[in-house]
Amino acid sequence: MNLGKISLDKEIILNTTDEVIRRFGPDKANITDVAKLLKVSHAAIYRYYNRKTALWNAVTERWLARLHAPSNDILKEDSPADIKLYHLLENFAEAKRLSAINDPEMFANYIKLARNSMEVIEKVREDGINKIEKIISQGITEGVFFAESSHQTAKSVYLATSVFIYPDSFEDPNRKQNIDSVVNLLLSGLKNPNK
Q1: Core-most of 18, 74, 125, 145, by most CB within 10 Å?
Q2: Quick one: CA torsion of 170, 172, 175, 181, rounded to 10 degrees?
């Protein structure tokens, strides 16, 4: 990365940290590598991120936002709530599996962070629950779904499908069938019995 006369800012630091993590892996990458690549001192980076954890959290949060960007498009679909919810849950399940294949260093960084810091992971969890809740609320309005509390129902749906975002589920030969089975069971349970 050639910075030339570009002034240092958070975006440049995040981009460089992405590069360092991908180059060295999450276990070996450190602030020194980021500073060297940027040709600045540690102190320059610490003006923007007061500790390594804050920088790694910011990198992971941005990576997760990009990873889950397609779910925002699903929320905008002109589809009935049951179809939209199916698409969203399928996206949640497959996004992390595909990232483990296509971006293994950043996925490993995410796993490492998940073990050591719940701050970013909790934000992602809440974002997922909020997206599910929006669709459940749409379904209640449409008369397709029945739920006493759209928020509690969204939490339950998220918990029921979260097993598919863990790496130990990625190699299961019945993965697609299992996802379909769980999602269809959840959709059946949400269906308005009067419809």
Answers
A1: 145
A2: -130
DSSP helix/strand/coil, 5: coil
Answer whether 26's CB lies under 8 Å from 108's CB.
Answer: yes
Residue labelled with tokens 């996206």:
91
- The 10s digit of each residue's pLDDT in 3-29 is 444 578 999 999 999 999 999 988 898
DSSP state of 166: S
Cβ contact 182:135 at 8 Å: no
pTM for the structure as a whole = 0.83
Q: Tell me, what amino acid is at 38?
A: L
Token pair for residue 74?
A: 């699903």
> Cβ(100)–Cβ(170) under 8 Å?
yes
Which DSSP category does 190 fall into? Answer: H
Q: What is the largest CA-CA distance in the chain?
A: 66
The CA distance from 113 to 53, in Å, is 9
